Amino acid sequence: MTEYRDGSNEPIDLRSSRWFSGHDVAGFIHRASVRATGTSPRGLGERPVVGICNPWSDLVSCNLHLRSLAAAVRRGIIDAGGIPFEFPTISVGENLMKPTSMLYRNLMAMDVEESMRAYPLDAVVLLGGCDKSVPAELMGAASAGLPSILVTGGPCAPAHFRGRELGVGTDIWRYTDDVRAGRMSLDEYDELEAAVMPSYGHCSEMGTASTMASLTEVLGMTLPNTAAIPALNVRRNHAAEASGRRAVEMATQGPRPADVMSTASFDNAITALMALGGSTNAVIHLVAIAGRVGIDLPLHRFDEISRRTPVIANIRPSGDHLFEAVDRAGGIAALLLELGDLIDLDARTVSGCSLGEQIEGAVNRDREVIRCVDEPLRPQGGIGVVHGTLAPNGALIKLSAASPALFRHRGRAVVFEDIYDVAARIDDEALDVDETSVLVLRNSGPRGGPGMPEWGQIPVPSKLLKRGVTDMVRISDARMSGTAFGTVVLHVAPESAVGGPLLVVRDGDPIVLDVEERRLDLDLPASEIAARLAKTPLPAPKYTRGYGALFLQHILQADRGCDFDVLRYDGSEKDTEPHGILRGWIGGW
Known about the structure:
Layout: H1 17-20, H2 25-36, E1 49-54, H3 66-79, E2 83-88, H4 102-118, E3 123-128, H5 133-144, E4 148-152, E5 159-161, E6 164-166, H6 170-180, H7 186-195, H8 208-219, H9 234-253, H10 257-260, H11 263-276, H12 281-292, H13 299-308, H14 324-329, H15 331-339, H16 355-358, E7 383-388, E8 391-398, E9 408-416, H17 419-425, E10 438-441, H18 462-465, E11 473-476, E12 488-493, E13 510-514, E14 519-522, H19 526-535, H20 546-554
Parallel strand pairs: 1-2, 1-3, 3-4, 9-10, 10-11, 11-12
Antiparallel strand pairs: 5-6, 7-8, 8-12, 9-13, 13-14
Helix pairs in contact: 3-9, 4-5, 5-12, 8-11, 11-12, 11-13
């Protein structure tokens, strides 16, 4: 067998031939099993077997069209001489899964990895829709080590409400505040509900799904200029078909995920994240994906790149337009073209070309949507990293969607023990709060949530909304939707549930946020913080059995990507072979 070497284009023998080539009982059973599916065994062992990983579900509208994309991928695989086999994986969707789909990202990654490892596949096409599915599939594919290419689902159609084009999330948050402030009736809110999600596809703003689709292209794991194609546009099916054809080539020529996703590729992805004003969730996902290929991505690297990268994508919630406008403007290739020397164009991609070769001929057709670096939306990147006595291991703030007037702020804490405490008290007229207060939410991180739900955009109290207050400093160990906005400090690490300083903040404590100095401090003597921590017990774990208990035992903190400690690359040789005996009967001959 020809050994595959990282960085080479040397062909490899078909992995699937080890299942199907032998004229023995193992080969007999394997071929007979394929016949039983209604598929002819002709060509098995000689033609590439390409898997189609499909998280389709009736429960996830973002993924509802993945069946048709899978059919397009299948056509491409057959056209290129491969043999397609579709297999399912858990479908993670943010809206209906509780407490959060993030609790199940790692489960999906394990599902993808083990399916790829256990079955007779030479390459895999990954279909991704709702935001956690894309990083989960990249994590699983990176660990499995098989040649892989990803096809994202694309943004849904824009919503329209009373003559205004809406995004799925950003505008909902604004209208919800109008309801709470008494500026919008419940009947009008019902009318909005009927209009806000007009089609399948992922969120139409630069939420986490749009962000991860874009970054996956920049990482080199999709075909060029496919990230922003709308879900309803037939070009997305054409891209899926082309990805199936390319996967057949990759089955014998590579590259594998670790060959594509290099240190340079991750720097490129971070640069694009900052230029897009993308989701804070992408930081966690990039750190986790990088950990699967043995690359360390510390938070300070994100901040370094943010300081040198302007925001040039005028997309909500940081700007004015929806994600499909990026497609019309020239796609992610146009963004990379404008970023110029900030991007390493020698990085490899699954297309077989370098990133630079992929964007040759790119044109920016709309400088209102994708600005040039000399006339940016913001002079520095969309996300900042802050540290201090309240966040020793770091926290994030989405600068491009925050209020600059609050970038240097000192206020007294108003503390909420959990999201249920927020629901019970945030609109209480007796709540002791004013516009200078700092809202603090704890017990909402990876262990405390559990799963780190999107609870970080704590609502502005209704009594302040009625007075015209639209933003406040808010701090938590939770995440927030990429479609959300406000001066919200998130991902505080370590979280309160493992003994981070957030655990001991009390009502009235002074908190200091200084974005320029990248500081987030509980402004008390270190001795006082230490004394409080010493006598404050940790909360009881939320799960004691099942997947939840496994999650709590192995989950890493936000600054390390919230992956499981046992799933990160540990330096050992990648094992893409099935466990057990190939040439014998299942029980062992």
